[in-house]
Amino acid sequence: MRNSWKVARWEIRRNLKNKSFLISLISTPIIFMLFAFVPSFFNKESNEKVTVNVLDEIGVYEQIVQIATENEANWNVLRTDANESEFPKLVKEHEHTAYIALTQEGLENGTIHVYMSKDINDRFLLETRVLQEPLRQQQLAQLELTDKQIAVVGKGIQVEAVSSGEEAATGPGNTDRMKHLIPGVVAGMVLFSIVMTGMMIFTSASQEKKEKVAEIVLSSVTTTELMQGKIIGYFVLGITQVTVWMLFLIPIALWKMDFPLLEYLLVPEMLVLLFIALTGYLLFAAIFVSIGATVEDMTSTSNFQGIIMMIPFFPIAFLGPLLNDANGLIAKVLTFVPITAPSVLLFRLAQLEQWPWMEIIISIAVLILSIWLAMKAAGKIFKIGILMYGKNATPKEIWKWMWT
Amino acid sequence: MDTVLTVTGLGKSFKNKKVIEDITFEVKKGEIMAVLGPNGAGKSTTIRNIMGIMYPDEGTVHFHGCQPGDIPRHKIGYLPEERGLYKNVKVMDMILYLAELKDYPLKKAKQRALDYLKRLGLEGKGNVSVEELSKGMGQKVQFIGSIIHEPELLILDEPFSGLDPVSQEVFKTEIQNLANNGTAILLSSHQMNMVEQVCDRLFMINRGKKVIYGTLEDVKNQYANFKCTIRGKNDLQVLESIPQVQRVENREEAAVLYLEPDIQPAAWLHTLPETLAIQELSIDRISLHEIFIDVATDNHSQLLIEKGEGVYA
Known about the structure:
The complex is a heterodimer. By secondary structure, chain A is mostly helical. Chain A has 2 domains: about 45-155, Periplasmic binding protein-like II (D-Maltodextrin-Binding Protein, domain 2); about 175-400, no CATH class. Helices cover about 65% and strands about 5% of the residues of chain A. A 4-stranded mixed beta sheet of chain A has the order 2-1-3-4, with helices on both faces. In chain A, strand 1 (about 50-55), helix 3 and strand 2 form a beta-alpha-beta unit. In chain A, helix 2 packs parallel to helix 12 (about 225-255). By secondary structure, chain B is of the alpha/beta class. Chain B has 2 domains: about 5-220, P-loop containing nucleotide triphosphate hydrolases (Rossmann fold, 3-Layer(aba) Sandwich); about 225-285, Alpha-Beta Plaits (2-Layer Sandwich). In chain B, helix 2 (about 90-100) crosses helix 3 and helix 2 runs parallel beside helix 4 (about 135-145). Chain B starts with a strand and ends in a 7-residue tail after the last helix. The model of chain B is unreliable at about 300-313 (pLDDT under 50). The chains are: A mainly alpha, B alpha/beta. The interface of A and B includes residues 6, 213, 216 and 221 of A.
């Protein structure tokens, strides 16, 4: 094991000194942040206050100013005496300006005309929906209904789903959904990152073979130690990558978002999710390291090896059924299939409010057994493959090595 | 001299074909032992089995001072035939990694690395990326990597191949220095002139089997008959009729007469016909190179059979 650590340290040092690794380490969170903030930056540009001129023939101007303030609408509400027929001309002459005609005729017809200058986007129309309720109240008031009648009619009818039994009484709200969703998303990021870094094991093993350096290293360590060292080394690199990302992203998320992120992350469930991510890494790492040892020339990597590299992304094919029902039959079956188990289990646990502990235990047991088998097979393939110079191994050869 | 390594009855098969068979030899402290043989003879397979990179089907490899079956990796230096280094790392980092793998103190390793880089003409290259080195320079770095930890046993698979004559001389001198300082050296090579200059003992292998094994002097005494080179135009029949001549190679201006074993050169000279045209005449022993060619082309085996001896010594 000591020798495995030496190999692991070397892989870590070698990559941390590698410019392309460092650039990707730092640039990834920066790119994330750019994606997150550039749109809102442009949004700000377009967030210039809209001058809303109200032609008030029905006496609701004060109410509109109040509603606009309450809803934090980015409006500068003004009263206008201009005639509605002049509005098209006026919006042409002024930028960032809207004219709303609150006329008696409009109220009776149930249609309020809004005139906007060209530079105002359609979002403004959505914002004007806040006017619907006071105008409806005004409409009803003119029908001379009692206050109670106005209240009932104004409220309208809403359809609401109600859960049965105890769940209904203690029905989880949005906050409870976040309780599993946030740690699940973070664990998913950890799995994604370490698996992506784990793919570098493939390159590393393949490069070692291509550059014929394996034999000199194997004069000091055994093939098992070399393989273990690579798996540990790239795991540490993956974790380093996630840590750097988190150091960038968590403070920004805390600053920009309005919920207690750390409270969601620092929960016991997080440990289970991270353990699942770790098992996922170990399973895929065993596959990558063994396949890497069979490939010398990356450009002539056969379809077979290419398909193997796609394994971690296999569950994407089932995204639809998984999104539809995280507790459905397909989701449950994929939880027990080794190559889909890590990501599907994380996906399900992030969505489910009640965790199916028995399924989690069985899935983890399946994963641990699969890791053991994959490591045994990887050891055999790596041992022969890494010293086979001059050609890529065929699937037939790899199959034979596994049973030697 | 103390024995450092004993190989006994080593055998290995690939796909039911025996690649090496019954390989037995020893390597002693302070000596240079050469494993010779044509391409595909089984030299690298023998070395890989010794290093534990492959596992033999038969026989044992015993490193003295260790339990049978144990490989004291940190006491062995190895320069494989398949040369390679990590490309995108600095020369010094590469050497220090190899030292670290052998549990050698890094401070001491760095000093030794600087010393050897200077001796091998690579002074100031410690901070250069490996990918910027020429093939020969890379080979020197790999050689430094194999000896950085002061190994007790140094195994060099084709150390001279790919080197220019100057570098070959440098390597030869370093290998001799290491042996003089007590390192046991096992090397395989095709460059017979180099082997002849540096090795103390040799083990010649062909088709996976031992052909010749002994000290260089014994091998020469036993297998290297005398040959007589005569410069001058002579009739082939006349040359072939000279007593104790096994065969004649007649070239344009010179003929090489391969003599029978056990001849007395001085007495044999008296048997030469007086009519022979001689501008120059020299008598010397067949070189290791010629023995090697004989082995590789099976002439040697044929010769031993004709002489009524066993094929393998």
